[in-house]
Design goal:
- The chain is of the alpha/beta class and 371 residues long.
- The chain has a single domain, classed as Rossmann fold.
- 41% of the residues lie in helices and 13% in strands.
- The chain has 14 helices and ten strands.
- The strands form two sheets. It has an eight-stranded mixed sheet, with helices on both faces. Strands 1-2 form a two-stranded antiparallel ribbon.
- β5 and β6 form a beta hairpin.
- α4 packs across α5.
- It is globular and about 65 Å long.
């Protein structure tokens, strides 16, 4: 999903099983298709009517985009992941900052390592990243794209988003709604619940995202399990040590687990400083990378150019010989049979490491140098 080699293996397996070819549609073409299909849906009046009148090329395009988005995070982010643009406006993640590329490379490298470890029969903790960063590196934008990618394309995902106060939670929620509201209708699952700054629940997928402030009296995620998590501003949390005691045990040992902890420094002597230093001094342990990124790099890309209102050239998809049957969003998850299926089926339980314990005892973190 993140590593190029993992993505290509998954595409190869899918094509072999379905006997249908997947193609990489240019981002500008994908935008043209989104405009075209939105107009077709408006004319049809409902999704059911659209499918009655959809051409083979339109059905093929929708299937291609659903499956490619599911298999390849960057493919989805470059075409459908809407973020705030540097200097105002919105854009897709077509040209990530250098700092964002560093983070994405760390995630891809870790995914590849975990898959290889799983195939050797070794324990897998999941994609767990601790990001001790400078300001204005675009890490939060990447974090929200990672969260919403899983929430909107995969079944039964359980997400946790937490930060220091209501204002920061509002920011995370607003970023998520920006992504969701700008998805094309064929990649946008229906909402069952949407309570501002509290939770978002996607109906058919049965995936949900919870939003919590760090000071919540009941504890962070207590009594639940999460396979997606994004925690921000940890250096300013008053009771940040509860992350280790309450939250870490909620993360299942699975390759499908993705947790990003990020914060800038806030002096010495706080939990975040102690935590990142403990991680930094533990080389050679399996599980998590620490990405210490410096320098914001170039600004975010300009918004996509050359977006025309004319329908796209259907021949691009006709040549792909894609399966043209109707596919609901939730069905894509059931069609996947990727190279690492055996790894993904590894046992996951609520307290994979026994009783809650400190990072030094848990040995889940690996310091990644050179970023």
């Amino acid at each position: 999903m993140y590593s190029p080699s993992v993505v290509e293996a998954a595409i190869t397996r899918y094509e072999a099983k379905s006997q249908q070819r997947l193609i990489r549609i240019d981002p500008t073409k994908a935008e043209e298709w989104a405009v075209h299909l939105a107009a077709r849906l408006a004319k049809a009046g409902s999704v059911d009517n659209f499918w009655k009148w959809a051409t083979r090329e339109e059905a093929a395009l929708i299937r291609n985009e659903r499956v490619m988005s599911m298999l390849d995070f960057l493919y989805w982010a470059e075409r459908y992941g809407t973020i705030a643009q540097d200097g105002g406006g919105i854009c897709k993640l077509t040209s990530p900052w250098e700092s964002q590329q560093i983070l994405l490379r760390v995630i891809a490298k870790l995914e590849q390592k975990l898959i290889e470890a799983g195939l050797r029969g070794e324990p897998i903790d999941g994609l767990l990243i601790c990001l001790h960063k400078a300001r204005q590196l675009g890490a939060t934008a990447i974090g929200r794209l990672l969260m919403m990618h899983g929430m909107t394309l995969q079944n039964n995902r359980r997400g946790m988003s937490a930060s220091v106060d209501d204002d920061k939670i509002q920011e995370l929620y607003d970023r998520d709604k920006l992504i969701y509201d700008n998805l094309p209708w064929y990649l946008r699952p229906d909402l069952k619940y949407d309570e501002k700054r509290q939770h978002i629940h996607f109906n058919v997928l049965d995936s949900r995202m919870l939003y919590q402030v760090s000071s919540q009296k009941s504890g962070l995620g207590v009594g639940r399990q999460f396979d997606r998590a994004h925690l921000t501003e940890l250096s300013t949390w008053i009771s940040a040590s509860a992350v280790e005691l309450d939250f870490f045990p909620t993360l299942p040992q699975s390759l499908t687990t993705l947790a990003l902890l990020e914060s800038t420094a806030y002096g010495r002597g706080n939990w975040w400083h102690d935590f990142t230093e403990r991680v930094r001094r533990m080389p050679g342990l399996a599980g998590v990378d620490v990405a210490v990124a410096a320098g914001a790099g170039a600004g975010l890309a300009e918004d996509l150019e050359g977006r025309g209102a004319a329908p796209p050239a259907l021949g691009d998809v006709r040549a792909a010989r894609l399966l043209t049957d109707r596919v609901e969003p939730g069905a894509v998850d059931q069609l996947l049979d990727v190279e690492v299926a055996a790894v993904l089926r590894r046992r996951a339980h609520l307290h994979p490491f026994g009783a809650p314990r400190t990072l030094g005892d848990g040995k889940r973190f690996l310091h990644h140098r050179g970023v």
